[in-house]
UniProtKB/TrEMBL annotation:
One of its GO terms (cellular component) is mitochondrion. It comes from the Eukaryota. GO terms for molecular function: protein-glutamine gamma-glutamyltransferase activity. Gene3D superfamilies: Transglutaminase-like (3.90.260.10). It comes from Anguilla anguilla (European freshwater eel). InterPro entries: Papain-like_cys_pep_sf (IPR038765), Transglutaminase (IPR050779), Transglutaminase-like_sf (IPR036985). This is Uncharacterized protein.
Amino acid sequence: MTRPDLGLGYEGWQVSDPTPQEKSEGVYCCGPIPLKAIKQGELTLKYDAPFVFAEVNADVVKYITLKDGRKIKFGGSTTRVGQCISTKCVGKDSREDITHLYKYPEGSEEERMVFEKASHHNKLREEPGWSQA
């Protein structure tokens, strides 16, 4: 797909979800956002880049709320979300793993660099009043 609205380098495969749960710029649709932008942590591009990035790079985090209202992290997982992104294979009834098109391998230097870039663009952070166990 050509994306003249984004400049050179963002043509090609786009992420799109026509069945989201909330409106994006007044429309119930997510995307299109270049697949390359998601993999590279480019969250300033149209449309819905931060949401799609979070969908494939989320961590599961467990917190407990104390009587005084503080929340303390007590567990979670970095391997339950985004580990197997797939699509139907062309010409056969099986799946094709396309995770590598969306993200770098978990724990790799590239993955850490992309997360740092995305954190800077989107100001990802812990919520105030939450602490580590």
